[in-house]
Specification:
By secondary structure, the protein is of the alpha/beta class. 41% of the residues lie in helices and 13% in strands. It contains 13 helices and nine strands. The strands form two sheets. The protein has a five-stranded parallel sheet with strand order 7-6-5-8-9. The chain has a four-stranded parallel sheet with strand order 2-1-3-4, sandwiched between helices. InterPro entries: Asp/Orn_carbamoyltranf_P-bd, Asp/Orn_carbamoylTrfase, Asp/Orn_carbamoylTrfase_sf, Asp_carbamoyltransf_Asp/Orn-bd, Orn/put_carbamltrans. This is ornithine carbamoyltransferase.
Length: 327
Amino acid sequence: LSASLDSVDLKGRSCLTLKDFSSDEIKRLLWVSGDLKHRIKHEKQYLPLLQGKSVAMIFEKRSTRTRMSTETGFALLGGHPCFLTSQDIHLGVNESCTDTARVLSGLCDIVLARVYSHSTLEELEKEASIPIINGLSDLYHPIQILADFLTLQERYGSLTGLTVSWIGDGNNVLHSFMMTAAKLGVHLRIATPKGYEPEQSIIHEAQKLSKQHGTQLVLTSDPMEAAHGSNVLVTDTWVSMGQEDEKKKRLKDFRGYQITMQTGSMAKPDWTFLHCLPRKMEEVDDHVFYSSRSLVFPEAENRKWTIMGLMVSVLTDYAPQTPLMKF
């Protein structure tokens, strides 16, 4: 595996979805991320790998983790982050996506965009001559999934054979899990209420990936069935940004989906809990959220190391210095 990962070259690549990344490419990203974390956090090394480089951060939606992890991570590597809200740059309104993409290509080295519509990212990517990174769209949240799998690799020592259970909304984070899990040998059990299933085309693609990689994919509307025999219970907000008017209906439809110790009783004895945050009480109770099984805060920190790993991989020729982690 080490030899095949050594030869992976991601320089110049955009990352709109992990659907476009192979098993080896995702492993390489996790290896570089874990390597940077080890060298910078634990060995206290200074690595100005992005010195002289700048990232344009376009945010149509607010964010704590995506903004902080990118700004602090990019700066830690010697680069310069430029944060742009809709007040600064209004994609497709005061300037077309095409023009913005071309202008930014001449001014910075990489763009991270957090947008409402995934098509905005595709438009940017089509016209830009620099890498475009998806900081979240309505369809996918790839940088969250990299952090989640780094967190699980650290906790369990390897990923192959783990079972992850998603109990919640069929949203962008779930879509990204579905495009990634099988490539890492991870089984996926998904419970969503009726009417909140993941997109049909993404289910179809995930089924193909499961077949190809020999993993299990289960879709149900029963949270307890999804939790059965699982290593990791995962949920996310039930009401995403832009869905506030549906809140009352959603809270009713998601009744019985709160993750509690009772949900955990269906899982394996070593089960853990993930949530990409921000979290609301109805999604998971305090007993689980603040327990030793909860990995939510290391998971949030790993947003920083994985965005650093991704940026370094697409902007430089960096080769990891630490031994390959076990997958």
